Every structure is written in C-alpha cells, then in structure tokens.
Amino acid sequence: MEHIRLPKVENVRLLDRVSPRRSRVGTLYLTATHSIFVVNEAGVRNETWVLHSLVFSAEKQAATPSGCPLIIHCKNFQVLHFVIPRERECHDVHLSLQRLSQPESYEELYCFSYKPNVDEVERRQEWDFLDLKTDYSRMGLPNSLWKLSPVNRHYKVSDTYPADLFVPESATPPVIVGSSKFRSRGRFPALSYYSKENHAAICRSSQPLSGFSARCLEDEQMLEAILRSNPCSDFMYVVDTRPKLNAIANRAAGKGYENEDNYSNIKFQFIGIENIHVMRNSQQKMLEVCELRSPSMSDFLEGLESSGWLKHIKAVLDAGIFIAKAVAEEGISVLVHCSDGWDRTAQVCSVASVLLDPYYRTIRGIMVLIEKDWVSFGHKFSHRCNHLDGDPKEVSPVIDQFLECVWQLMEQFPCAFEFSERLLITIHSHIYSCQYGNFIGNNQRERIELGYEK
Amino acid sequence: MEFAELIKTPRVDGVVLHRPFLPTVEGTLCLTGHHLILSSRQDNTEELWLLHSNIDSIEKRFVGSLGSIIVKCKDLRVIQLDIPGMEECLNISSSIEALSTLDSVSLMYPFFYRPMFEVIEDGWNSFLPQDAFKDLESMTDEWRLSEVNTDFSVCPSYPPLVAVPKDVDDDTLRKVSTFRHGGRFPVLSYYHKKNGMVMMRAGQPLTGTNGRRCKEDEKLINATLRPGKRGYIIDTRTVNVAQQAKARGGGFELEANYPQWRRIHKALERSNVLQDSLIKLVEACNDQNHSMDRWLSKLEASSWQSNVKEILTTACLAAQCIDREGASVLVHGTEGTDSTLQVTSLAQIILDPTCRTIRGFQGLVEREWLQAGHPFQQRCSQSAFSNTKPRVEAPVFLLFLDCVWQILRQFPCSFEFCESFLVLLFEHAYASQFGTFLGNSAADRSKLSLPEKTVSLWSWVNRPQELERLSNPLYEANSLVIWPSVAPQSLLLWEGVFLRWNRSSKCLDEAYEEMVHIIEYNKELQNKVNSLRRQLAELETEDPLLQES
Questions:
Q1: C-beta atoms of B511 and A415 within 8 A
Q2: Where along the sequence do coiled-coil regions lie (chain B) (predicted)?
Q3: Per residue in B402-441, pLDDT tens?
Q4: pLDDT for the residue B1
C-alpha cells in the first residue's frame, strides 16, 4: 500500500479507443492490486478493473487544456487512455502505477496475496489436479523402452529441468550424466512425447557443447539409446530449430550442433525459427500496426508483413508439422533442440503434440501439455513475461506464439478442439497476471523454493 | 450456324480428369455445343459437366504423345484433362476455344436449357417494378411510376418503368435525360421508411466545359428535399477526374446551380482497374510457393482488399447521410452503371433489413443491378484467368458480393441467407443455364425475349429445397440498421471464393453442420418446453387441487 501515492482521483476521463468523442467520466481508484475506473451514469454503475500485474507500461504525456493524458498498455494488449484533470495528480498516479506494476521481488507478486474463497483442502487438491505422471501413464509409460530416471531428483544434473524425467531404458546414469555435461545447462535429451502406436518419440534437449570438433561418447550413446527405443526404425532425426547461421555462430562459443559423422544413424535438419530478440521486435511492430489510428488497407497489410509476425508463426507451425509427420507418418523418433532448449524447443514440441494427440486438444489436455512442456521443462516464464522488473532483453512472446499456433489450428479445424478461443485468452492473461502461482519463477526448482503451493 | 461445325472431335476415350480435392478419374470426354462432359467408365456417372461459357482460358501442355489441357474457369476452378493422342488433344482444345468464345448471345445455353424441375413461380415475374412500386406506395405518396421509358427510347439502359417524384412529369424527364450520361436521369433507388429520406442514382451531369445547366434536372432532384433541408451528392470520382470529365462533355453539379446540395467526392476505382486487381489477387492466391514472405504484399499489391474497404466506406457514408443526418442522397459516377450501383445497393443492405432476407436480396439484385442496367454481359464475359487484354470486363458485381459477405461475417445473425447464396450468384453471373444475367439491360432482355425463351435463376432458387440449403441457421429477424466496421483488421479475404479450390473446406463444413444440428436441436427442445408448459397450464386450469399448490 505504501506505493500508492494517490488512491483516488475524480473527474477522470476514459477515452473510447475508436471514437475519442465518446469518452466517459468517472473516478479512478488505485488499490494494492488493481486500478479501478468507476463510472456512474444515470444511476448505472460501471467498473473497469485493471490488474497492476497486467500493466506493461504507463506513459504520461504532455498536459493539454483538457487534462493530462495517461496511456496504459497492458500485457494482454488492452490499451486505456485516461485524461486526468490535474498534472500533479497524473504524476502521482503514473509513479504509483509504475511501481505497482513492476514488482521488485517475487513476494510482491499478486499470487501471494490473492485469496479467493477456496478452502485449504480444495486449494491443495487443485495443485495436484494436473499430475504429470498421469499423462506419462496415459502414453503407456514407463514400459520396456522408456523408464523414469531419478537422476535429477534433486536438480543436481540440470537445475532447470524437472525432477521427474523419462529416458530410454538402455540409458544408464553414467550415460545420462555424461551427456548432460555435454549439453548447454545440463539439459540432456529427455522424453517429451511417446507414441504408443509406433514407438516413435519426441525428445528434447539443449545444444551440444560441440564447438568445432569436440565429441562426447556419452552423448552419442544417449542418442543411440533413443534410437534403440524405437525398434521400428533404423535412424532418427535431430532437429535444430535455429537458423543455420546462428547455430554455426554458436560453435565459436564452444557450443553448436550435432555432426552427422559423429552420431550414428541420425539425419540432421535445421528448421530456422528466429530467436527471442527477433520475436520481441516482431510483436512490438505488429502491435504498433494494430494501434494505428485510421490505417488504410495498404498501411495495415504492409505493416503486418514488415513485422514478420505471421512468418514466425508459420515457421513454428511448419516445424511442428515436420516433427508430427516424422512421428506419425514415418514412425521415426526426433530429438529437438535450439540453444537452451526452453524456448523454440518448447514451442515446437508442444505444437507437434497438439497435432499428434487428440488428448492435448481437450481442456484438461492443453493444461497438462503446458504444465509438461513449458512449466516443468523450465521455460523461463518470469524472465520472458517480465513478472519482475528485470532485463528487457530476456522478455519475449514465446508462449504467446504457441498459443497463437493453437488458435490458428482451431480456426482450420473447428471441431477438433474441446475448448474455445476463450480458454487460450484466459491462459494468456494469467501467465502474465501472476494471479495464480502456476507460472512464477523460471523453472521447477525455483518455483518450489518460492513455496508456490502455499 | 451449327455447333457441330465447331466441334472437331466430339468424343475421346481414356481421358484422365484432375480436379481439386477429388481423386483423378478416367473416362470418356464428350463435347457438346454447350458443355464439356466427362463420364467415368465405372458406372457411366458424369464426373464433369462444365459449361463452355464458364471457361476463361485454356492452356496446352505436351509430354511425349500425351497432351494435357488445363482448363481455367471463370469460377476460379482449374482442372486438367490428360488426352491420349496429340491430334485429339489439339482438336479438343481448338473446339473448346471456339465454343467458349461465341459472340452471339442467342447461342448461349440458357436458350437451349430445358429445366428438369417444375417451375412453380416464374422468376421473371417475381420482381417486377410495378410490384416494387406498390410497396413504396404503401409508405409514401410522394412518388409516381413513370412509363416515359416504356420503349427504352429515353434511356436505353433503364427499365421500362421508373419511380420519380410525383410532381415531375414525363416531359421534364425527357429533358433531364439529355443532361445525364447515357440518358440516365435521376431515379429513386431507395426510400428510408424511418425518416422518409431517399437515395437516388443517375449518370454524371453533362455540364461540359461551358458549364451547361438544366433547370429540369435541378427541379427533379430538389423535389426530393424537404423544405429547408439539404441533400448530399456522392460522386464516386475524385475531384480531379470529375473536373477532367468536363472536357469530354461530362462534369459535376455546380454549387451555384444546386445550392441545396453538398457534393462529396469518394473515389472508387474504375472498372478497368478492378479487372487488373482481380487478376493479381487470384495470381497471389494460386501461388504454389506457400511462403509467408510475400503473401501479404502480393495481397496488398492487388489492392482488392483496399477496393472492398473503399466501397464499404462509401456505402456507409451514403447510409449515414440518410439515417443519421436525415438527408437525401444522390449517387453517381461517370456512367452510373458500376460504382454507383455498388454504393446504392450496399447502402440498402446497411439500412434496410428487408434486403437481408433471401427474397429481399433477390429483389435488390433485380432492382439495383439487373433492371438498373449494369452491363453484366460485358462485365462478366471474362474473369481472372482471361489471357486477352481486358476491355470491358470488370468484377464490379463480385466486389459487391464480397462487400456483402464482409457485412454478413460481421453480423452473422442479421442475414436470412448464408455465404453459399453469394457464391452461387457469383457463379451464375459469369456462366449459367439461366437467363437472368444475360444481356446488359432491360432493353436487351426484352429484345432477346429472355423471359419467354429462358428460365430465370430465381425460379430455381426459390424452390423449398434450394432455399433450405441457402438459408442461414443463425438468422434472427431484426429491424436494425447495421453499421459494418471498415477497419482493415475487420475485412478478411473472401476464402469461400478466392481460396475455394486451394484449400479443402471439409473441416469448416463439418463445423457448420454441427452448428446447424445444435440450432435445430435447440429449437426442438424449445418447442418441447413450450408444449409442456402449455400442458401444465391446461392441467392447472382443469384441476383445482393443482391450483392450490
């Protein structure tokens, strides 16, 4: 509460996005968690609530005769244009909002103070609602080909990986540990999806620390183990979701990609999805186009194209399709990685899963998928979604793109999904709002440390 | 002239047909005077029954002794016929070329078509001007139906009966017709019941470089103004183009002569530009590259979406003048047969809920396009695949249908018909077994005796089985004026026409069927609830014991 300099301002005007003449006058309140704009017109009370944690930026513009404009951009793309009568008041609201929307520590996040009317037992139960082990059982695991490995139970092998990981039956702990030392951040090849029907699997990892010529016997054995877990095929794909140039550049830093000569029976493939910085800029440009006042059709189409946003969406979808086809049509296992294996890898594995398995198109299924491939496998939600005031270079709409890919699929296959667009929008909104503890922190270990279940 | 003369080879066996979404099939190809028919050998079913008049252009390809003919249709479908034997292939292709480029209208299929269904209601009589006028009479007595053009001598492109202000006599009309392009004097297009305001349309005034004026023309349009009120003239040309028109005898209404009218210029593209736009759009849609890189800029370069936006914006403007400003409107371009009609007909979709019913829309097309003299024969002689330089062809009507589809998409519950009806009209405007879209004017239709010698599209459409297929299950009749959004984000590419043959609509069709079932089931349940409620009410009145509880 100490960050609220001014809890109430009267005679604030909220401009209508489409026609500036149609504005409403009301009172703006600031609470610990929300901004609330209340309009009382002809006895009808109308409230607009905006979560502080959903505020992306608050911009104070130069004062005009009618007041001082304050433009709020939200992370769910809502834009509110307030005009506050006195500049002093606007200044106070602006500073308050800036501080309230950019928490400095995790404890300040909304989820730690959000207390809905749910009793303790129910609340605990809900955390157990999505048990990932159940999803693996659904796939038929563990079985004779894949087993649960205890190697990362205490996050000692990779602190960004989950505690429970499935590996090929023939992969021994020394092989796994050896492989993890050869992978960026210890993120060794682990199972994402297993197809009961033909034993093909999607595995994920980070880039190998191969540099120009380094080799690692255990890593090669790890891939061989994955291959052997698919008795129906004699080779596997290794898919690097980065553009070739970026991957080559990584070699100079001692990282890189798999050399087909060193790994037996792999077919290597670059898919070429751009990195988080390109995606961040792309979304920014696209939002600018969408906010143009009265664009001509040319302005709009040209702007949309130059943002490249749809091109990136297509790249992610194309990659998902390649992997899904490899598994479903060719019956071939795939190992997917990017640099760290927590951005493009997550996108591509989860899109492929949605294409392959109707379960992930149910309401429960999509939640399980996000819990598995994003939350448990260490997608850096807090960094990417800027939960705390952190490094702007880490911020990127990676999960946004995945959600949009799902939406694109829903548009083409309306009968194939149990949920509607509204679920995707709700999930998107809460990934950014931190109203719930699901997406706080950057990996499983961090989340447990923060005591999210409490 | 016998068709047989043009058919070099009437029949070839062993022809393989490739079509979008369906498996290839082999059969016997037959050429008749009007159709290209492929019967499969399996059970003699007709796999293909294509009107020659639906063919835009053909391409020949040879691989060894196998010739392929690629047939590009006006409805944007592309099919391929593999014909064994080079000679047969060459004969077939030159026969098709001859048969699909016939000049004379009376050789077209509608004159030979015998309907397989019983004509219950003759579409040629369904939307007569005199009947439309009766509706007008019930709302206002300020107008009369003039017969000045009964023999089409005053205005060759107008219908025989036109609605004009009551106090304007036929002599005045004759004088005005000499002052308007093509003799197209201002006539009533639409009467807005809510406030009595009207929309009129005409050709450009022939002011010329001398600033000629016509008092009768001024009297005519001033007669539509209420005392003390102003009207708007919407000119679908830029100010410059309107100025330049003077050099060719045309021009615009001078403020000095029309002080009560405010002129607004909202430029819409001319016909020749529109044909180019369509060709570029279809090229972009058929690009097999499947790359995202240039898709949007190719779409933008075609300007098709821009054209849609501009037309919708102008129609909204006209509608706003009438409904919001409470003013009468006069719309014209140069000839008054293209962009003018796009504006007046779209404005009515916005303003008048009747135009959103199936019959109402048919009536709208009849009044504002067919009878109003849009030169269909010329405009729809070639479509996007023509390989001759466009002269008079232009997708003016298709653009109108696209705009209607945009509004339909934004207001899915306000239209009694669904998208398929619009696609159907697009198809039949370009090639049809019905005579509705033949000719360029009511005069043409009368001269060719179309009502006597051909069947009307409306006769077929208005049969219950067709109506059911074309109805919108989401329709909820309302009396609203609906205002579409013209923001670029709100206007989509009409996939149902432009991507129809590129992408299977199977999943979307399934979803549509599902929706229809849900709505039907909902209606059934609602009826059941109502019937049970009635039973309960009856029981309550009968049994006093029940009343107590």
A1: yes
A2: none
A3: 999 999 999 999 999 999 999 999 999 999 999 999 999 9
A4: 56
Question: Is A344 annotated as contributing to ligand binding?
Answer: yes
- Say if residue A343 carries a ligand binding annotation: yes
pLDDT tens sequence across B386-399: 888 888 999 999 99
Q: Does B510 touch chain A (CB under 8 A)?
A: yes
Q: Out of B487, B502, B517, pick the residue that ends a domain.
A: B502
Q: Which residues does B158 contact at the CB level (< 8 Å), separation at least 6?
A: B149, B152, B183, B184, B187, B371, B372, B373, B441, B442
Nearest to B292 among A314, A414, A416 (CB): A314
Contact A301 B514 (CB under 8 A): no
Number of domains in chain B: 3
Q: Which two tokens stand for residue A420?
A: 């509607």
| Residue B446 structural domain | 129-502
Count of domains for chain A: 2
Check residue B226 and give its pLDDT: 87
ipTM value: 0.89
Q: Domain limits at A326?
A: 126-450
A288 interfacial to chain B (CB closer than 8 Å): no
> Was A276 annotated as part of a binding site?
yes
Whether A1 is covered by a domain: the verdict is no
Distance of residue B397 Cα from the nearest chain A Cα, in angstroms: 21
* pTM of full prediction above 0.95: no
pLDDT tens for residues B292-327?
778 999 999 999 999 999 999 999 999 999 999 999
CA distances from A351 to A313, A314, A374, A409 (A): 11, 11, 12, 10
Q: What's the rounded Cα separation, in Å, for the pair B19 and B81?
A: 9
Q: Is A338 a catalytic residue?
A: yes
Residue of A74, A338, A349, A385 marked catalytic: A338
Contacts of residue B486 in chain A, CB cutoff 8 Å?
Answer: none
Whether B310 and B275 map to the same domain: the answer is yes
Residue A111 lies in a domain: no
Q: B4 vs B34, B54, B302, B427, CA distance in Å?
A: 11, 19, 41, 27
In sign, the C-alpha dihedral spanning A370, A375, A379, A380 is: positive
Of A297, A299, A302, the CB nearest to B297: A302
Work out the minimum CA distance from B488 to partner chain A, whole angstroms.
Answer: 5
